[in-house]
Amino acid sequence: MKRFLPVYAAAAYLFLYLPLVVLGVFSFNSSKVAMWHGFSWQWYAGVFHNTGLLEAARNSLIVAVTATAVSTVIGTLAGYALWNKRAPVLTNSLCLSLLTPEIVTGVSLLAFFEWIFRFLHMQLGLHTVILAHISFCLAYVVIVILARLRTFDPSLEEAALDLGANEWQTFRRVTVPMLLPGILAAALLCFTVSFDDYVITSLVAGVNSETLPMVIYAMARKGVSPEVNALSVMVTVGLGVFILIAGRLEQAQAAREQRS
Amino acid sequence: MSGGGPPTSFAFQKTHNAMKRLRLLFLSPATAVMALLFFAPLAIVFAYSLLTRGPYGGVMRPWTMESYGRVFDPLYGEILWRSVWVAAVSTLLCLMLGFPLALYIARSAGRKTLLLNAVMLPFWTSFLIRTYAWMFLLRDTGLINTALERLHLIRAPLPLLFNTGAVTLGLVYGYLPFMVLPLYATLEKLDPALLDAAEDLGASPWIALWRVAVPLSKPGMIAGCLLVFIPCLGAYLTPDLMGGGKTVMVGNLIQNQFTTARDWPFGAAASLLLMAIVLIVTRSLGRKGEELI
Amino acid sequence: MNRRLFLMGVAGATLGCTSGRGRRLNVYNWENYVAGATIPDFEREFKARVRYATYGSAEEMLAKAMSGNSGWDVVFPSNSFVQPMQALGLLLPLDHKRLTNLGNLETRFQSPEWDPALQWCVPYMHSATGILYSKQVSRPPLAWADLWTDSYSRRVTMLDDPAEVFAACLKRLGCSINSGNERELKSARDLAIRQKPLLRAYLNEEVRDQVVAGDVLVAQMWAQVAQVAMDNAPNLAFSFPSEGFALYADNASILRESKHQDLAYEFVNYLLRPKVAAAIAIEMRTATANAAARSLLPEIQRHNTVLYPAHDVLRRGEWFRALPGPVQRIRDRYWTEIKSA
């Protein structure tokens, strides 16, 4: 099995990245249609000149990072509380929010915002998008955190309490460190769900708050669009670089901990 | 497992109450978010389901239960059944394909976050264009068929696109990370020493896996299945593109009501009924102590 | 957490936004309906900033506009949406004195059937639905009935749009595409169900690549999209079915909620300029409703029969109309049955 797992993992990663490879190849295609014509950098140049695209990418990042941060914090706290305390109304509503079809969430949030804005004299904008994303991301976070918590032994907490720690210290020093991999997984899931959301975002976005999926769907609706491919390759490479740097930081940290 | 006896000291009782207060405090932000951003909109949807379709879309009075009545129709029952079937198969495949991957990541010391991020990275590009890429790969003149023909393994192109199989592939591809992440969250706690010990005692690696890793990751498996099955049920883009729009699934039906058909009351009623059914089924499936939430 | 700080830092750094002063206009249009220079030239000449966004379906735009507070100034409804939007009170009645270039429109668009007095909209681009096919087929599909034969080895697609599929079936039966007659609709539904085993898929513009590659031999397609496909693959052709076909036009309208009405009028008037409209038609390969612009097109584009069908062909065409609620409901029910079959 020690040999099987890495081979399987490699195949799995290949499966996950196969469409990206296709997109990457065609981002260098000099023709607009999905048949190879020749090599060209023109679409990459086009992306940099497309201010709408860059602005949309910026908006998407802002929304995803904010919504992830807020949802992860709120969701972790809620998940922890739900671990030992029953709150059927909250859990059922979280479950329901997961079950709601995206378009229903979008339409209902739009109606809700419109109704509220009549009293507040506001308009749709990036803030409504962020609020909408928090609302549907919360359930994901809680589910992942609870799954992680269910593998815990609660007696560790009791031991800390017995030894004189108060509830805050117990939570901060004992539970949270053990939760970290779960928090990370939840945050990643949140970011992914938020970054690529189209239906809900397109309904509650204001005039100035176009996100990347909205722009991409508009450009790509007619079929494979080479500029979109170029942009996707750039986003992937950019985020990939982040991941590699963060991975190095993590490895350095792990090495430091091992040494100490 | 955990503390069985009655509280033995005043200090213990005090911290116990303090923990309760802490938990209550922790629940309040989530409750506020849900109340404002979920319940209020849900109430609006409920109101929509009881109204009538406006002449050009939207809703108007009179109040009526007619939309609910229309949902109870064998046509929609058939659509629901088909969707449940496809979603269930996709979920099962996700579980089988995702478990070894999650296990591998959980066991890679020092590279866990890197590998985990690497799983998510493709999903930070638009799902729509990745679906187009799959369509390009799977169609008759696509990469896979051309490669197989060049290798003389087949003589005519295989119908890899525009059928239920393609839809399943698309769903599995689209939701694999949703299975891997919760599985990883639970498998990460698995001490490799446990598996080594089992092997030392004579068990084959597979049995060790089955007896040790699987029970431990049960909460993760249940969470993953939930996070995959539900969205699969409501998927509309994949059946439209990978399935060639030839089959209607629940997601397409509801999507259609709010877009082309502009029949919001019917869409709202259908969604609410669907949500109620799935909620009841998933809650009743979880026995006490094994609830997913 | 290192990663989180990282990402937040970058997000913060890019937050330096440039908000321009001066006049603003928000335009919501279909994709591929302006040339690369159209908006920048307008911004320069009128010293304004234009927020230009696109949508893929009229229902999307309608959902936003119906709130009455969407923030958009100029939208482009299809002809069958003009009357509903006007009935919902969403459109601004147009003052022709401020649209001096209105006379540039083709005669048939000066008083179209969906807005005879051009009180609510200004026709912009038009097209039709026909059949895009590969010249290599043994039997060129010149009528809708050909799509029900087995001559194309199942490499046929229809549009994933109930209005279009019903239009094809109804025309085959000799009825109007806007029919609300239950019996006619039922026959149309049965026809569509009979056709389904012969189809490869129901696809919209996505099928363009597959037709070019040869996966699909025959596709029900909009003329404008077909033209782009034909530009890229010379072995393709387009036919306007003999039984009749659907026509549609996209029009410019100003929303009643608009806070920038002056600039909106100037923008619509700007789009009516012959040079501007011609530039868009040439670059995006669309059919403009502007006669003065059409006369500026190069010879070969002016007489392109796909984009500008001849008069006797146009006579077979029929405009889409807004349908009353009960009819819409029957059609929608039948569409679900067709897709489920």
What tags apply to this protein structure?
heterotrimer; B: mainly alpha; MetI-like fold; 2 domains; two-stranded antiparallel sheet; C: about 350 residues; alpha/beta; globular
Give an overview in words.
The complex is a heterotrimer of chains A (260), B (293) and C (341). With 260 residues, chain A is an all-alpha fold. Chain A contains eleven helices and no strands. Chain A has a single domain, classed as MetI-like (MetI-like fold, Orthogonal Bundle), CATH 1.10.3720. The model of chain A has no long low-confidence stretch (mean pLDDT 86). Chain B has 293 residues and is mainly α. In chain B, strands 1-2 form a two-stranded antiparallel sheet. In chain B, strand 1 and strand 2 form a beta hairpin. In chain B, helix 7 packs antiparallel against helix 10. The longest helix of chain B is centred in the N-terminal third of the chain and has 40 residues. In chain C, strands 1, 2, 3, 4, 5, 6, 7, 8, 9, 10 and 11 form an eleven-stranded mixed β-sheet that branches. Chain C is 40% helix and 18% strand. With 341 residues, chain C is α/β, with parallel strands linked by helices. Chain C has 15 helices and eleven strands. Chain C is globular and about 60 Å long. Classes of the chains: A mainly alpha (260), B mainly alpha (293), C alpha/beta (341). Chains in contact: A-B, A-C, B-C. At the B-C interface, helix 3, helix 5 and helix 12 of B face helix 3, helix 4, strand 6, helix 8 and helix 15 of C.
